């Protein structure tokens, strides 16, 4: 005698495994698995019904596996692809525009070179008188410090340039530049001469070095306008 199995074959069921699970033939794997769990909850402890649902679920999986092995696209995959094509595109997230930072415009400072023009009036006689007195002190008063003479000459040039240009910082800059240039020329001149100048006029090297600086400060005060 042939012993009959208590578990019926889902192929013998005229409704088919999909109808037994309550899903269409193009249902995806997640839908089939969810339908299986829902059907098992419905039948409760009915052993026969639970066996039929498990068999239907296995039959669906075997059918999908055979289709893949034969290189065929399953109906579920076709349906999923069609649903993706028909589904509306996801809404684009609107990214708020970043506020534009407006940096303050910084204009480059314009350099204005002073012109050369002979001073008149007070700007003419003041540097002439001051420089003449300082020159006499430098040549005729050996005991008077030449550094102090140059300090007075630099102050004279700065004051006169301030009167002419109304720019204090520029006047200080020009006075310092004229002093440095004059000292450089004086150092070169003092190095080329001996401690005593020709014609027997005894002058120290410091006095010789101070003369070009005094003259340059006078010319700058008279001509830089």
TrEMBL record:
Transmembrane spans: 168-193, 205-224
Keywords linked to the UniProt accession: Membrane, Transmembrane, Transmembrane helix
Record bears the keyword S-adenosyl-L-methionine: no
Sequence ranges of Polar residues compositional bias: 71-84
Region of interest called Disordered, as start-end residue ranges on this chain: 1-24, 71-91
InterPro entries cross-referenced by the UniProt entry: CPP1-like
PANTHER family named among the record's database cross-references: PROTEIN CHAPERONE-LIKE PROTEIN OF POR1, CHLOROPLASTIC (PTHR33372:SF2), PTHR33372
Record's protein name: Molecular chaperone DnaJ
């Amino acid at each position: 005698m042939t012993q009959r199995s208590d578990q019926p074959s889902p192929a013998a069921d005229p409704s088919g495994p999909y109808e037994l699970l309550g899903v269409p033939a193009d249902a995806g794997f997640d839908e089939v698995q969810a339908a299986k769990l829902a059907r098992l909850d419905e039948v409760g402890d009915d052993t026969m019904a639970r066996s039929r649902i498990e068999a239907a679920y296995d039959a669906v999986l075997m059918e999908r596996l055979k289709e893949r092995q034969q290189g065929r696209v399953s109906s579920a995959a076709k349906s999923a692809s069609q649903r993706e094509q028909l589904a509306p595109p996801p809404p684009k997230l609107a990214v708020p525009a970043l506020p534009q930072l407006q940096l303050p415009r910084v204009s480059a400072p314009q350099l204005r070179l002073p012109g050369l023009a002979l001073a008149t009036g007070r700007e003419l006689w003041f540097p002439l008188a001051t420089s003449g007195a300082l020159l006499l002190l430098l040549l005729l008063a050996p005991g008077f410090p030449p550094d102090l003479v140059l300090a007075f000459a630099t102050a004279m040039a700065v004051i006169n340039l301030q009167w002419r240009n109304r720019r204090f910082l520029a006047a200080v800059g020009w006075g310092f530049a004229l002093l440095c240039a004059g000292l450089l020329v004086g150092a070169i001149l003092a190095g080329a001469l001996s401690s005593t100048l020709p014609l027997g006029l005894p002058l120290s090297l410091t006095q010789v070095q101070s003369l070009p600086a005094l003259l340059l400060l006078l010319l700058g005060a008279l001509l830089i306008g």
